[in-house]
Write a structure and sequence with these properties.
two-stranded parallel sheet; 6 strands; alpha/beta; 5 helices
Length: 121
């Protein structure tokens, strides 16, 4: 709805994918939904995206730092949410070797972090 050419949603829970697909259809948004193994098959390592968004708890986000960061294209952005304010510094530190993140927004004790990779040139 804001100009994205293609959107892909990934979740480990098939029911979450069904719910997301129902909501995106209801909101007239075209989104492809995949389980992680299917995503990896369709978009093998090295496939990068202009924007990568992850909304999960800080523990999994920190474990996934190398993988999520590797999916951001040069000049692309990474947005992370599902992070409690007191966990933000730990998540920022986990991503520091890959991409510089900062607090983009906060609400009711939760924060969203974002960062942009430099262009390849």
């Amino acid at each position: 709805k804001v100009g994205a050419g293609a959107v892909i949603g990934v979740d480990i829970d098939p029911q979450a994918l069904q719910s997301a697909e129902f909501n995106s259809t209801r909101n007239h948004c075209q989104i492809s939904y995949l389980l992680p193994d299917d995503f990896a098959r369709v978009h093998p390592a090295g496939a990068c995206f202009d924007i990568v968004v992850a909304n999960i708890l800080s523990g999994p986000l920190m474990l996934m730092a190398p993988m999520l960061s590797s999916r951001v294209a040069p000049g692309g952005a990474l947005v992370l949410s599902g992070i409690l304010i007191e966990q933000a510094d730990s998540v920022i530190a986990a991503y520091a070797p890959h991409i510089a993140l900062s607090v983009a927004d906060q609400l009711d004790g939760w924060v969203a972090l974002s960062g942009k990779l430099p262009d390849a040139s």
